[in-house]
Design brief:
Order of helices and strands of chain B: HHHEEHEEHEE
CATH topology of the largest domain in chain A: Aminopeptidase
Order of helices and strands of chain A: HHHEHEEEEEEEEEHEEEHEHEHH
CATH class of the largest domain in chain A: Alpha Beta
Oligomer: heterodimer
Distance between the termini of chain B: 68 Å
Structural class of chain B: alpha+beta
Strand content of chain B: 25-35%
Largest sheet of chain A: 5 strands, mixed
Number of strands of chain A: 15
Number of domains of chain A: 3
Helix content of chain A: 25-40%
Number of strands of chain B: 6
Largest sheet of chain B: 6 strands, mixed
Distance between the termini of chain A: 71 Å
Number of helices of chain A: 9
Strand order of the largest sheet of chain B: 1-2-5-6-3-4
Radius of gyration of chain B: 33 Å
CATH superfamily of the largest domain in chain A: Zn-dependent exopeptidases
CATH architecture of the largest domain in chain A: 3-Layer(aba) Sandwich
Strand order of the largest sheet of chain A: 10-12-15-13-14
């Protein structure tokens, strides 16, 4: 059998004399070795790029410097000072998932510095440290935690670093609802009315939200559910647990706008307590959606039902717009 | 024993039989050395280019200096503060606190003494002498480190340090008397 691959291909390298049985073996051996070397080099390059992409050194340095400088400023300030600090999210494309798994850091507030280390201590045991200057009257509540949302606060004479706990926040977190503004589409939302009393209000909210400019949302999954309970007060329930921070932020914003518009009325922002589990409308709606769908339940009282529907719908719109801003 | 009399070419691949001989192996290595060398150079260039374009440097020296300056100007380290209300009167230097001990106690970097150091100098303007200033007092934050770092200001590079100088018009309070002056803040931050 004779290989002839063009005038300047194999035939020029391997004479017809060589391309006998032994010649074929030589050619095959040569190509196998060549492919092995190419494969090895490709793997080495891929591993090198991966190690650069997944290297947390830059981000450890960045977060330690940033948070230490914030801590420095908090020690200057005489009043209370709270900073909600969200660590940078990562692109969730397929390539990035394969090349760079999500970063997890352990962040520690020490007496005189901020230390950032890899959450997996075995991966890299050396933390990045950046000092800050503590005021003589400040007591540091040294703490260490693994989270992508941190609250660095100076309250009274205590400087502390905490995780994001929706129930204990005194104001709405500066949480970004999404990582990127890429691939945004016009917000697709559902307004669900549970009771007859809330039908008109739901229609008003829907009409107001349809107004221009359109809201943009990459997730396209907002649901505002309105229910009515007589002899109660306005309560905002946020969905738990998968979308808790996002849902809580929207609920918190609605509450803030409500308090601004109706300062004499009382309201509450609470985690969803399952009170609508017996509602057929609610169950039918939820059955058609994924389990982790992001929703807000507005339990209206007689006050909200009797007030101008446009005013109420407007405050919902303001909160939603602020959320997606 | 058969020998191949053909001249060796770069592209010539040795046969199985030839590669069993020492000469054949040497020929094979020589003929492929250019390829290997080229591949090594290409790989090195590839990694150098990747590392060149990946930036890991974060320079916050200026920000550090500004944070410390604001700390000095707006905290009670050297500024007058009401002992009852703890309110700080920004821009009024309390000469009773204008000393190393007060500065070091108010602005402490703990074990990181090398992080930053500063010298505060208070001057009084003399209107009768154009450009003339009268030295009133000075105070150091981390004096020992300041004196170590000061000779390192002139060279550049990682082992050197950078000084940031800011002048700030202030009122100073000394023995119950207020007067106008200029606060000169010299902040030294090591380059690495």
């Amino acid at each position: 059998m004779v290989y002839v691959v063009g005038k300047r291909g194999l035939s020029s390298k391997y004479s017809r004399r060589r391309l006998g049985k032994r010649g074929n073996e030589d050619v095959l051996t040569f190509w196998i070795w060549e492919l092995l070397v190419v494969g090895m080099i490709f793997i080495v390059i891929l591993l090198a790029i991966r190690s650069i992409v997944t290297s947390n050194g830059y981000w450890k340095k960045y977060y330690s410097m940033d948070m230490a400088l914030i801590a420095d400023l908090e020690n200057t300030n005489q009043g209370d000072f709270t900073v909600n600090y969200q660590l940078k999210g990562q692109a969730q494309s397929f390539l990035m998932k394969v090349m760079a798994p999500p970063r997890l850091f352990e962040i520690a507030l020490k007496y005189d510095s901020i230390e950032v280390s890899d959450a997996d201590k075995q991966e890299n045991q050396y933390p990045t440290i950046f000092p800050y200057s503590k005021h003589k009257t400040i007591n540091v509540n040294a703490n260490s935690l693994i989270s992508d949302f941190l609250v660095l606060s100076k309250t009274g004479s205590a400087l502390s670093l905490e995780d994001y706990h929706v129930g204990t926040l005194s104001k709405c977190a500066s949480l970004q609802p999404f990582d990127s503004h890429k691939d945004m589409t016009t917000l697709g939302y559902d307004i669900v009315s549970i009771n007859d009393e809330t039908n008109n209000m739901a229609a008003s909210v829907d009409n107001i939200l349809k107004n221009r400019p359109p809201l943009l949302d990459p997730a396209n999954d907002l649901a505002i559910i309105l229910s009515y309970e007589p002899n109660s007060y306005f309560t905002i329930f946020y969905s738990t647990p998968d979308n808790e921070p996002r849902s809580h932020k929207l609920g918190c914003l609605i509450g803030t706008h409500y308090a601004r518009s109706f300062p004499d009325n009382s309201y509450d922002v609470l985690p969803y307590d399952g009170s609508l589990s017996s509602s057929m409308i609610f169950n039918n709606y939820k059955n058609g959606k994924s389990a982790d769908q992001f929703f807000i339940i507005l339990k209206l009282s007689d006050k909200e039902i009797s007030m101008d529907q446009n005013d109420f719908a407007m405050l919902i719109q303001d909160a939603v717009r602020e959320y997606y801003r | 024993m058969m020998t191949d009399k053909r001249p060796i070419k770069m592209s010539d691949h040795k046969s199985h039989k030839e590669l069993k001989k020492k000469k054949g192996q040497a020929d094979y290595l020589i003929s492929n050395s250019f390829r290997i060398a080229f591949m090594v150079v290409a790989l090195i260039a590839f990694f150098l280019m990747i590392n060149f374009y990946v930036s890991t440097k974060i320079d916050v020296q200026n920000l550090q200096a500004q944070a410390l300056l604001n700390r000095i100007l707006y905290s009670d380290a050297v500024m007058y503060s009401n002992p009852q209300t703890a309110r700080v009167y920004v821009g009024i230097v309390d000469m009773a606190k204008f000393n190393d001990a007060s500065l070091d106690a108010s602005i402490s970097y703990g074990n990181f003494t090398r992080h930053v150091s500063a010298k505060l100098k208070l001057l009084k303007k003399l209107p009768e002498i154009p450009g003339g200033d009268l030295f009133i007092a000075d105070a150091y934050l981390n004096r020992h480190e300041f004196e170590i770092q000061k000779p390192r200001l002139s060279p550049s590079g990682k082992g050197a340090a950078t000084m940031y100088i800011t002048k700030y018009p202030v009122t100073y309070l000394k023995d119950g008397i207020y007067d106008y002056g200029t606060l000169v803040v010299e902040i030294i931050i090591p380059n690495s």
